[in-house]
Specification:
The structure holds 2 protein chains of 2 kinds. Chain A is of the alpha+beta class. Chain A folds into 3 domains: 99 residues, Rossmann fold, CATH 3.40.50.20; 69 residues, Dna Ligase, domain 1 (2-Layer Sandwich); 245 residues, 2-Layer Sandwich (D-amino Acid Aminotransferase, Chain A, domain 1). In chain A, the strands form 5 sheets. Chain A has an 8-stranded antiparallel β-sheet with strand order 13-12-9-10-11-14-19-18, with helices on both faces. Chain A has a 5-stranded parallel β-sheet with strand order 3-2-1-4-5. In chain A, a hairpin with a 5-residue loop joins strand 12 and strand 13. In chain A, helix 4 packs antiparallel against helix 5 and helix 12 runs antiparallel to helix 13. Chain A is globular, with a radius of gyration of 22 Å. The mean pLDDT of chain A is 95. By secondary structure, chain B is mainly β. Among the domains of chain B are: 31 residues, no CATH class; 75 residues, OB fold (Dihydrolipoamide Acetyltransferase, E2P), CATH 2.40.50. In chain B, the strands form 3 sheets. A 4-stranded antiparallel β-sheet of chain B has the order 3-10-8-5, with no helix packed on it. In chain B, strands 7-6-4-9 form a 4-stranded antiparallel β-sheet, with no helix packed on it. A two-stranded antiparallel sheet of chain B has the order 1-2. In chain B, a hairpin with a 2-residue loop joins strand 1 and strand 2. Chain B is rod-shaped, with a radius of gyration of 28 Å. The chains are: A alpha+beta, B mainly beta.
């Protein structure tokens, strides 16, 4: 097992990883920027080092500072969390070059799956269902031909893209050339890579993802799916597991397909395979996230598997602790991402000092957070305050429990999205469970029509 | 009053021998008060308490680690702080003398120490000018970003 783990992250996920390390019995090293000196992960870790000023580029993204800290603290492993350096193949390679274990897959695997067009190509070879699409576009006439065959609407996507950026929907052939150009420009600006590809655009699919665990012995298991269709501008707001749209047959197919993807690329670690589900319940591979995800907690609640613990154990050379036949999915879990944002002002970030904080509790209520009363939310990073997760034996009970927990939750001093979630959780469409990625737009239309 | 001078001298001696500041006596013959300026105890010389930073790599104590450095009155001095995480070295090599010492005058841009990060020796330049009044870090210990290396007058 590792002698010491450095957590190359901050906020809620740094706390999550430190907790898992403590339970295993591994000392931890926290890194922090000057803006995070009072952050919870700093006090929870065994040791902590200030590595730079507030700006992420000079601290949490500054590879030399992080590696230097690992070396002087004697850390033999680095956990990258999510975001920041977690899907940077070069960082994984650098850790390796310094004899430090990067808790995640290899740089090569990250590269393969991080390049979206290449990932599609790989999946083609393994017979994984794909959204009809192209490879990298280098010729407008070829592109027009492909799109004519697939049928419009189509979506032009940056191969190095992510986070909802570098995507353009095209409804008609006349708009194709211009949108390819615009997409390429945006891609160059945000990702330093202007290569784009095209996919058929599914108007309002459901976003279903499968959690997999894979060890170095070739064991791959899946822990059920998550439904992340409730999004705003491609950012997830609320997730639930299992998906209310998925029946047993499709569930098993999804799981086995995801495991097939992981096996095909000889994956090691925890990962998530993302699919889009159309109205006829056909699913298509979209992409793979080669890291721990924000919403991993809801899968933990329904499967009883500690995913971060597994991740650390796998990285340390152990096998996945459970066989597929022993995986039991029980009950239903929902997660609300509570952010310091003002829902009345288009979710404008509202950092500041939390002067009152009472987290909900009770059976089936889990709060993953790094905040406390008196904590000042810095302006330099994301606005997430907490992940509120509720579990219950049925979806309806979980929904009601979430409503109860949201009402109990007190956060004062900053504007939060708590009231927004209180409304969503009671919404009749959400309650029925029959929604897709068009949910939020539809919900807002209904809400404002009423007012 | 009828105090004989010898008696008063004796009283004065008692006062002084016992480091008393005041004594008053009354008897049938009268009253006398003797007062004396006593020396205040000089406070113990402001001993330099070790600055306890949370970053000490050897300290693997959870929870008990102090976060705030114990303050001496260095608030009027300028600081040379570390621009990186690494190991502080006072000299270019183990055989050489320290690059600067307390009492030396340094000018802005002058190299004052080395910080090693990943086997690379980085020359650290002062961004202030003045006289070194204190070197805060021991040779060969780890420093973090922003940590005070030296105070300059």
């Amino acid at each position: 097992m590792f002698k010491k783990v450095l957590i190359a992250n901050r906020g809620e996920v740094a706390v999550r990883v430190i907790r898992a390390c403590r339970e295993i019995g591994i000392p931890t090293v926290a890194i922090y920027s000057e803006a995070d000196a009072d952050s919870l992960h700093v006090s929870l870790a065994t040791e902590a080092y200030c590595i730079g000023p507030a700006e992420s580029s000079k601290s949490y993204l500054k590879i030399p500072a992080i590696i230097s800290t690992a070396l002087i603290s004697g850390a033999d492993a680095i956990h990258p969390g999510y975001g920041f350096l977690s899907e940077r193949a070069d960082f994984a390679d650098i850790c390796n070059a310094h004899g430090i274990k990067f808790i995640g897959p290899t740089g090569d695997v990250i590269r393969r799956m991080g390049d979206k067009a290449q990932a599609r190509e790989t999946m083609k070879n393994y017979d994984i269902p794909l959204i009809p699409g192209s490879g990298i576009i280098d010729d407008i006439n070829k592109a027009k031909k492909i799109c004519k065959k697939m049928g419009y609407p189509v979506i032009v996507k940056a191969t190095a893209g992510g986070g909802g950026k570098g995507m353009r929907i095209v409804n008609h052939e006349d708009e194709l050339e211009e949108n390819i150009f615009l997409c390429k420009t945006e891609a160059q600006k945000f990702f330093g890579n202007s290569a784009v590809y095209i996919e058929k655009y599914l108007k309002n699919p459901r976003h279903i993802e499968v959690q997999i665990l894979a060890d170095k012995f070739g064991n791959v298991i899946y822990l059920g799916e998550r439904d992340c269709s409730i999004q705003r501008r491609h950012q997830k707001l609320l997730e639930e597991a299992p998906s209310p749209a998925v029946g047993e047959k499709v569930r098993e197919k999804l799981g086995r397909t995801a495991a097939k993807v992981a096996k095909a690329i000889k994956y090691e670690g925890v990962g998530t395979v993302e699919f889009l589900l159309d109205e006829s319940n056909n699913f298509y591979f979209m992409e793979m996230n080669t890291r721990l995800q924000v919403e991993h907690g809801i899968t933990e609640m329904i499967s009883n598997v500690d995913i971060v613990r597994e991740q650390i154990n796998i990285a340390a050379g152990k096998s996945v602790s459970i066989a597929q036949r022993d995986v039991e999915i029980r009950g239903h879990a929902i997660e609300c991402r509570i952010n310091a944002e003002d829902p009345e002002r288009d979710f404008m970030p509202a950092p500041g000092q939390i002067n009152g904080y009472v987290a909900p509790g009770g059976y089936g209520v889990r709060v993953d957070s790094h905040v406390y009363s008196g904590y000042v939310i810095p302006t330099y990073y994301d606005s997430m305050i907490a992940k509120l997760i509720c579990w219950a034996p049925t979806r309806e009970q979980a929904r009601r429990r979430m409503y109860r927990a949201l009402k109990e939750y007190v956060i004062t001093g900053v504007k939060t999205t708590l009231p927004f979630y209180q409304d969503i959780i009671e919404d009749p469409v959400f309650t029925k469970g029959k929604f897709d990625t068009g949910f939020l737009e539809d919900y807002q239309n209904r809400k404002y029509k009423k007012d | 009053m009828n105090f004989e001078i010898d008696y008063v001298k004796k009283l004065a001696k008692i006062l002084s021998d016992n480091n008393l500041s005041e004594m008053s006596l009354e008897n049938g013959d009268g009253a006398i008060v003797l007062r004396r300026e006593t020396q205040n105890n000089t406070p113990a010389a402001a001993t330099v308490q070790p600055v306890v930073q949370q970053a000490a790599p050897a300290a693997v104590e959870p929870a008990a680690a102090e976060k705030k450095p114990v303050e001496e009155d260095l608030s009027n001095y300028k600081k040379i702080t570390s621009p990186m995480v690494g190991i502080f070295y006072a000299a270019h090599s183990p055989e050489e003398a320290p690059i600067v010492s307390v009492g030396d005058t340094v000018s802005k841009g002058q190299v004052v120490c080395i910080i090693e990060a990943m086997k690379l020796m980085n020359k650290i330049e002062s961004d202030v000018s003045g006289k070194i009044v204190k070197v805060c870090v021991e040779n060969g210990t780890a420093v973090e970003y922003g940590q005070v290396l030296m105070y300059v007058e």
